[in-house]
Amino acid sequence: MKRIKTKDYVEMSKRACRKVIEAIERSDQPVLGLATGSTPEGLYDCLIEAYKKGHVHFGNVTTFNLDEYIGLSPDDENSYHYYMNEKFFKHVGLPTSQTNVPKGNTGDNKRACEDYEALIRDAGYVDLQILGIGENGHIAFNEPGTPFESRTQVVDLTESTKNANARFFDSIEDVPTKAITMGLKSIMESKEIVLLASGVKKADAMAKLIHGDVSEAFPASILRNHPNVTIIADEDALSKVRD
Ligand code: PGA
Fold first, then answer.
1. Planar angle of CA 66, 82, 31, nearest 5 degrees
2. Is there an atom of ligand 1 within 6 Å of 132 CB?
3. Which residue is closest in CA terms to ligand 1's atom 7?
């Protein structure tokens, strides 16, 4: 895994933004894998700014998001689909037909998972996947113990993840208990992966990712088996990592 240590969150976001723009420029039909959460917000702001200045175009870009809560419709303010529309898609002229977010409200979750895998395969797989990391080492909603062979599936959220995400809801009781998520194997099929991390609350997870064992007990560790991963993280997030 390559590692880029940045001074702070703003620089992390700018480095990631440059990577995404390069990936878009490299391909006639770029496929981006996108993430939600607080970490990539600065990246999306930077991409929006670049788009407004005419430095990047999204006309031929297809996107796939990692995950979605079960039971929330795309226009529910707490859904990840809504997040993506509000924070990114609508600002860069990305037509709905080119954006994909797992569907957590079809009533047929098994089918929704299979359809999502097929869509990614038909698009030629993800060229550049953006990832955040959970304090417990999850990537997307693949919680500790998720098999490395997992594909897009419905999962129960752990208490740790519900607590971490409760800040977006009125109360913790409102946080959905299940989600649909790309699996670890599906994520590993991306041609290139950029993992972003910022802040001291990610320091333990980053130390484990870089120095710990490759183990299903710490899902992000699977990335050590991928040939093209770049970690872009700020000094605080890397404060427990030995150089
Ligand atoms: P965060 O979430 O970016 O809001 O910290 C990351 C994650 O849980 O994957």
1. 40
2. yes
3. 134
